[in-house]
Amino acid sequence: KDHYRVLVVGGGTGGLMVASQLMQHEDDLDIAIIEPSDKHYYQPLWTLIGGGVFPKEESERDEADFIPDGAEWIQDAVTELHPDENRVTLKGGESVGYDFLVMAAGIKLDWDAIPGVTEALHQPGNGVVSNYLYDTCEKTWEAIEAFPQGGTAIFTEPTTGVKCGGAPQKIMYLADDAFRRNGVRDGSRIAFMKAKGKLFSSPKYERTLYDVVKRKDIELNLMTELIELRADQNEAVFKNLETGEEHTEHYDMIHVVPPMIAPDFISQSPLADNEGWVDVDPGTLRHNRYENVFGLGDNSNLPTSKTGAAIRKQAPVVVDHLLAALQNRKPLNGRYTGYTSCPLVTGYGKLVLAEFDYDKNPMESFPFDQSQERYSMYALKAYGLPRMYWNGMLRGRM
Ligand code: FAD
C-alpha cells in the first residue's frame, strides 16, 4: 500500500500519542506510523537510571506493543519529505503518499560537534558519561560509584536548546547526594559548565535551584561551553562565551550533554523553518505553509522547553484540528499555550515540579507551592509518571 489518509512520521512519544488518540475517535481511520526502531524508550527515566535507581531495561518496551490496533506500522525511516507532492521517501527507496501528515521524528543529538566525545563515551571506565543515550545512561552510575575522594566532576550543557532543559543538572544533584553517601564529597569539586546565561528558564523555579546549588557547594559557570574532550588525558576544553577565552579542566568524571539540532531530513526539506525545525503555528500546531501538515514535540519549532509533558498537551490540539479537517467541521477551539513541565530532581527523594507556559509563567497542577523540594513529587516522577506514560498517555487515554 502506498497511500494513507493520515501518515505519522516517528513512533516516539508524540507520534504514538497522536495516533492512539486519533484511533480513539475514529477506529477505522486509514493511518500508518513510520518508525524504524523496534524499541520504544521512556527517556525521562534515564536520569534516574544514571542515578542508579533503576536498571536501563525499565525504560524500554517493544514498539509493536504500542502501535494502536488498526494502525499500520511501516518499519522504515523517512529520508526525504515532498510536501508539494504529499508524499515521503523511505530509506528502502519506496514512496508513501498521504492526505495528512504528522511530523514527530524527535531531535538529533549532535555528538560530532564536540571533538573527542563520541569515541570516549562508548569506552568503559574513563569517566566520560551521558544520560542522553539508552546505551550509556548506566555508565553514568558506574562513574558516580567509582568517583574518587578529592576528585573533580563536571556537568555540561550546550548553547542549543536540549530536550528536557533540566536533565543536564538533575544528574548533578543526584551525583552530589551519592558522593556524600559514599563519603567522597569532602575535598571534591563539582562544576556545572553551562553555555547559556541562566541556570533555568522560568524564574520561579530558578530561585530554588540557586539555593540548591549553594547548599550543595556546586561551582556554577554560566556562558561556558564544552568545545573539546581529550579523554586520554582526562581533560576537557571550555570556551568562555563572553570573553572568547579557552581553558582546560582536569576531570575524573564528566557528564556531557551534546548540542541538539533538527534531524537532517527535516532541516533539508521545505517543512523546515530557518533553523531547521518543522515550522508550525504555536497555537494550532498546523504547519505555517502546508495546511495538511502538523508537527509536535521535539522536532517542532514551538518556542517552549522540549519535553514529553509538553507533548501531552500538544497531542490533543493536533488531534482536534486533524479530526476537524477529516470530518469537514470546525476545530473545537483547541489551542496550545506552551505548557511544559520539568520534574527537577534535586537529590534522592527530592524534586521541584516546574510547570510553565510560553511566557515562563507557572501553570501548576497541585494546590501547593511547587517551587519547593518535595518527596511526593519525587515519588510521582519515579513511580507514578512511568505508569501513566505506558498505560495511559501512549494508549490515548490521558
Ligand atoms: P521521540 O520520543 O524521541 O521520538 C522520535 C521518534 O522518531 C523515535 O522513535 C525515532 O526512532 C523516530 N525517528 C527518527 N528519525 C526518523 C525518521 N527519519 N523516520 C521515521 N522515524 C524517525 N520529558 C519529560 O516530560 N520529563 C522529563 O523528566 C524528561 N527527562 C528527560 C531526560 C532525558 C535524559 C532525556 C533524553 C529526555 C527527557 N525528556 C523528559 C524529554 C522527552 O523524552 C522528549 O521530549 C520526548 O520523548 C520527545 O518526544 P518526540 O515524539 O518528539 O520524540
Provide structural commentary.
There is one protein chain. With 398 residues, this protein is an alpha/beta fold. It folds into two domains: 3-107 and 262-337, FAD/NAD(P)-binding domain; 111-259, FAD/NAD(P)-binding domain (3-Layer(bba) Sandwich). It contains nine helices and 21 strands. The chain has helices at residues 13-25, 46-50, 117-121, 137-146, 167-181, 203-215, 264-267, 308-326, 375-391, and strands spanning 3-9, 31-34, 39-41, 60-62, 72-74, 78-82, 87-90, 95-103, 108-109, 128-129, 152-157, 189-194, 219-221, 224-230, 235-240, 246-250, 253-255, 260-261, 293-295, 340-347, 350-356. Strands 1, 2, 5, 6, 7, 8 and 19 form a seven-stranded mixed beta sheet that branches. Strands 10-17-11-12-13 form a five-stranded parallel beta sheet. A hairpin with a 5-residue loop joins strand 15 (235-240) and strand 16 (246-250). Helix 1 (13-25) packs parallel to helix 8 (308-326). The radius of gyration is 21 Å and the shape is globular. The mean pLDDT is 97. Flavin-adenine dinucleotide (FAD) binds at residues 9-15, 34-37, 43-44, 46-47, 77-78, 104-106, 131-132, 163-164, 167, 263, 265, 297-299, 306-309, 311, 343. Keywords: FAD, Flavoprotein, Oxidoreductase, Quinone, Transit peptide. Residues 4-119 form the FAD/NAD(P)-binding domain. This is Pyridine nucleotide-disulfide oxidoreductase.
